[in-house]
Design goal:
This protein has 62 residues and is mainly α. The chain contains 3 helices and no strands. The longest helix is centred in the middle third of the chain and has 15 residues.
Length: 62
């Protein structure tokens, strides 16, 4: 699986929201990535399919 990053997600949080999130999820970035992976897995979107589709999409958009 190619781990090259091609997308970014930005979420605006106040400092108090960030601190509250860090209190319950010490590594919120890893937690969010795990949630995305779990959601994709539950939908049947496997990493193998993701690589094929990402490669195809990338080539098509060059």
């Amino acid at each position: 699986m190619d781990r090259e990053t091609s997308r970014f997600i930005a979420i605006a949080l106040t400092e108090s929201e960030w601190q509250a999130l860090r209190a319950v999820k010490p590594n919120p970035t890893a937690w969010l990535k795990q949630e995305i992976d779990r959601t994709l897995e539950e939908s049947g979107y496997s990493p193998a399919n993701r690589d094929e589709e990402d490669s195809t999409s990338f080539r098509a958009t060059i």
